[in-house]
Request: fold
Amino acid sequence: MRNAIYPGSFDPPTYGHLDVIKRASTLFDKVIVSVLNNSAKTPLFSAEERVNMLREAVCDLPNVEVRSFEGLTIEFAKECNACAIVRGLRAVTDFEYELQLAQVNKVMAPAIETVLLTTALEYAFLSSTVVREFASYGSDISKFVPPSIEKCIIKRLNELKNKNN
Ligand code: ADP
Reply:
C-alpha cells in the first residue's frame, strides 16, 4: 500500500484543495487528508468542522480518508505509514516555503518524499484567505467552494456577526 498524506489548514477547504486531493488520489493507493489542529491559532472552523466539511466533499473518492492531527506533519506522516507528503504549489511565492518544508522533512525522515502538485490554472489565485475575505463582505463565493462548504461559511460568519452585535 502506498499511502500519502495531504496536510494543511483547510480553513476552509476550497476547490483548489479538492483539485489537489482528486489528482493525488490517482497517484497513491490511499490519500489521508490531514487537517492540522493548531492550538496556537484561532481558525474560523474547528478541526472537527474542517474534517466534516472535507469528508462530505470527498465522499465520492473511495481511497481518500480525512483525519485531524496535532504536532509535526512528518511525525503524522510516519504514523500513517505514508511514503509521501503531498502539497500544492500555486505560484513562486509558495515555492520557497514549500521547498524549505520539503528539505527539513527529508532530513527528519529520508524515506518520505514530498510531492508538489502544481495548481490547476483556474485555481491558481485561490486560497482559504481569499475565500474568508470575500465571504466576509458578502460576495458570491460559489466559484471557490462547493455548495455545502459555502453554506457552512455563511452560517459561521453570521454567527460571528450576531455575536459581535
Ligand atoms: P497551510 O497552512 O499548510 O499552507 P492550506 O490549507 O493553506 O494550509 O494549504 C494546504 C496545501 O494546499 C498547501 O500546500 C497549499 O500550497 C495548497 N493549496 C492551497 N490552495 C491551493 C490551490 N488553489 N491550488 C493548489 N494548491 C493549493
Remarks:
- The pocket of adenosine-5'-diphosphate is lined by residues 8-10, 16-17, 20, 87-88, 90, 94, 119, 123, 126-128 (CB under 6 Å).
- The chain has one domain: 3-124.
- The chain has a mean pLDDT of 96.
- The beta strands are 3-8, 30-36, 64-69, 82-89, 113-118.
